[in-house]
Amino acid sequence: xxxxxxxxxxxYGQRLALLKSGLxxxxxxxxxxxxxxxxxxxxxxxxxxxxxASSLDLAPLGWKGHGGSVPAAYLAGMLAAGKAMKxxxxxxxxxxxxxYSRKGVAIYAAIKGAxxxxxxxxxxxxxxxxxxxxxxxxxxxxxxxxxxxxxxxxKQFSSYLKGGADPEDTAKNFEEVKQxxxxxxxxxxxxx
Length: 192
What we know:
- Helix content is about 45%, strand content about 15%.
- The chain is of the alpha/beta class.
- The protein has a domain at about 1-130: Nucleotidyltransferase, domain 5 (2-Layer Sandwich), CATH 3.30.420.
- A 5-stranded mixed beta sheet has the order 3-2-1-4-5, with helices on both faces.
- It is globular, with a radius of gyration of 17 Å.
């Protein structure tokens, strides 16, 4: 326990406050390339994962964009909430851990995705605006960069282009995957 505190991996004061709520925690973690969301319940023998989803789970649903983006985080939040609600979870409390927190970042997009899917979540109101959630900022930047510097465009969006995706179609792709999740695709069980 002391090692995790010294290595700044766990804020035990924050964790205790979350556990005292008695609600499952919507744990959101972000890496450079993906978002991981888990609905975790505390039991005396340790934490129990009720449901989970990551932005990597979006590819089978048609997602062609980057896994660490704001739109991917929102969609992964929707997917995780759908799986949790199928397991009977109706309410949770957001747990972002010790990650850097700023209004409009992918972490809050994931929480908003879970809220919009129907999960009642206690969280602040630091959500990104709807245009950013749909990926309009990616579309605009791709168009701008493509018109100004083709080489920089190809470098910046290399993962999209290598996968056969057009970054200018991000908002359209977002809506397609969102509809797939709403129709129940990808919500086959409580865990990945």
